[in-house]
Design a protein that fits this description.
Length: 97
Amino acid sequence: MNESYMKTSKSEEEKKRLVNRLKRVEGQVRGIQKMIEEDRYCIDVMIQINAINAALNKVGENLLTHHTSHCVLEAIESGDGETAINELVDVMKQYVK
């Protein structure tokens, strides 16, 4: 794939949103560590793990949307669409495992 597609351009607002979401996830993970250290009820810990998974899935969804509507579209327009689509399909196969 053309190296110009290996780095994407996200707006500062979009980057800030993603980073803030990841910082919340980081805080949630630390919270789970503390819950385990304090021998908290397993169900409560599992609920928090589910919340983290949902938050990470949302980050992935946002990145997928950006990648498809910007990076893949740009690759298609420049004639390198097949490579970009194959790359995206390979990543999606990893997501559904």
